[in-house]
Amino acid sequence: MSAPLLRVREIDAFIEQFHILEDVTFDVPDGGITVLLGRNGAGKTTTLRSVLGMTSVTSGDIEYNGQSIVGKKTHTIAQMGIGYVPEHRAIFSELTVQENLRIAARHKDDLPRNIEMIFTLFPDLKRLYQLQGGNLSGGQQQMLAIARALVPDNRLLLIDEPSEGLAPVIIEQVIAAIKALAETKTVLLVEQNFRVASQLADNYVIMDHGQSVAHGVMASLSQDDEIVQRYLGVGMH
Amino acid sequence: MTRSDAVLITAIVGAILSFSFISSGGNVGSFGITILSGLFQGMLLFLVAAGLSLIFGLMDVLNFAQGAYFMVGAYLAYDIQHTGGLIDVGIADPGLRFIVGVIAATLAGAVLGVLLELLLRPVYKRHLFLLVLTFGVSIVMLEGIKAFYSVTPYTWTEFFGIREAQFTFLGQNFTQYRLFVLAVGFALMVGISLLLNRTRIGIIIRAGVQDREMVSALGINVQTVFTFVFTLGCAVAAFGGAIAAPFLGATITMGTTYLVAAIAVIVLGGLGSYEGTAIGAMIVGLALAAMQQFSITINQPVLASITPMMLLIAVLLIRPRGLFGQER
Predict the structure, then answer these.
(1) Please, which pLDDT band fits residue A87 given cuts at 50, 70 and 90?
(2) Best label site of A49, A134, A201, B88, fewest CB within 10 Å?
(3) Domains of chain B, with CATH numbers?
């Protein structure tokens, strides 16, 4: 088995005086989709933010592609090939769709090279190209947020709650797009919707009260009613 | 700009101009003075407010030193133009000396802007510290000017071509220099707007105004963008001081006066909006000129100095977010 793309080892993180992450440890294999599961407040978003250096890690280590990234600046970590699709999308509402994509390019040819792939995944964006980000619907903004992470050649995508607040038909589109892009990229996903998570993920990590408590192959989790009930509070059958 | 924005702006400008026309007893000449002097003052205000607005938009902090850069620009331009000062550039032609003075002042503003940004770096995440620090820097700059140039106000005496040549507007004579300031200021206004709207750095600045953490997460070093914006903002303010000096001279109070009016401009225009700052500056300039005329008529000079703040209060009562502001 090849070395994991992302290795998180016993990280601790605080937000102000609150101890949010405690000894969080997991691996993200190279390729495929790994999902972080857990109840609200379990520390999933903070984990993603810690990877990108937006929340400081006080102890432990995070390795990306064999290199320690703890303590590095957010923009340096992103430049190593990590794309971020945050929970509330963080679309630049004053900028057009085109500008939202253009700003993400790290090299001059990034956008021209990848724009056709982006339009194939999200045909709507072609039609909305000159519209301001703020005028897009929630679903369209979600597509733009994912598209933005696809402009540079990122190897790892951190996607936080992509289905949140979206209509079922839009969720299906987003699921299809994430599946398609995971053929060439590694995805670390945070997803509350267990049905969406189980459709997408190859591997899972369960978080509870700021700790990583279980991990494994998604297909086996779907058979393990006890863990699902205990940590996620959802019944599958 | 939406339709209601346009209506509101037209109403404000219309009210100011009507007030000016009526209070001068229908005197066309006074009306001409209000318009030209108003646009002139508005343009100078814009040059201070532009940097203030860009820096505030990106970093959520009012750079209290912005007025000091305007003052330093004026002193440098004054010194280079007049003999017997600290700097002697050895150029005989006063017109050429003026150009050199403006360029030197702008470059000094840029260099001091970089230094200020370096000084602020350790406290970027603490807004109150930033505020106090920029205020402190403005005091240091003011005391520095006092030490080099004393507290005596300097009146511009070394005239040159366009500062002397006149033209007539609505029966009144004005120096062509006013037109020069309007033209240069307008060119700069358009230039910065093109920079913000057409270039990659401009897109990054506009995005950073909204969400600078997301900009970092895209792999962009926001720090270098901060440095760029600080340098630009301070250089433009120093440039403003330099081109204002042939009219205003160089005084130690000019920085504070323009800073306070510029704060009124950016709040009135809508915090973080460049468009709002440009239009707000012109509105405050026109209102100032109208009140200056009126205060001479009724012999109450205080009216002019409180005008920017009174106008600010009036606009905020109608529209709390300012003319073009986003809800923040």
Answers:
(1) very high
(2) B88
(3) 3-318 (1.10.3470)
